[in-house]
Amino acid sequence: MLDQAFGQVYTKFKLHFYKQIFSRFEDREATLTTVESFCMEVITALGEPTIAQFSHMMNLSTPNAAYKINSLVKKGYVERIRSTADKREYHLRPTQKYLDYYNISYSYLHLVMARAKKRFAPEDLARLEDMLRIVSDELMPEIPLPELKT
Questions:
Q1: Beta-strand pair 90-94/78-82
Q2: Who is most buried in 37, 44, 73, 132, counting CB within 10 A?
Q3: Cα–Cα–Cα angle for 132, 40, 82, nearest 5°?
Q4: How much is the pLDDT for 13?
Q5: Mean pLDDT value of segment 104-132
């Protein structure tokens, strides 16, 4: 039963995200393709990755990843930032244009969390947070993410 309950929550978040993406196509506001939206999700989640880190996570060849990134740069959703440690390397940073786009979809998470804070006791929320950190950090080692800022 736990797997079904978790699957339902995960599915609802995905469906809400897809609904937001496709509603932008209907309104003709979207300049990102669906694949580009997924690429931007990965770049944002990785916290300013290098092109190599992005291509590795997406399981793309470096030239294919560079092609997708170039399209995102031209559309104004990502910028390349030269590494201070290695001047040959660039990091990918979402622009404010993308962050404004992303926050519309991400606002649903905030809405659900606000509802949870009203519905559950603080100690239950703290326990849920602990369990989610364990799931993320220990039980999902295949998908490394940058440290959360608290």
A1: antiparallel
A2: 37
A3: 105
A4: 85
A5: 91
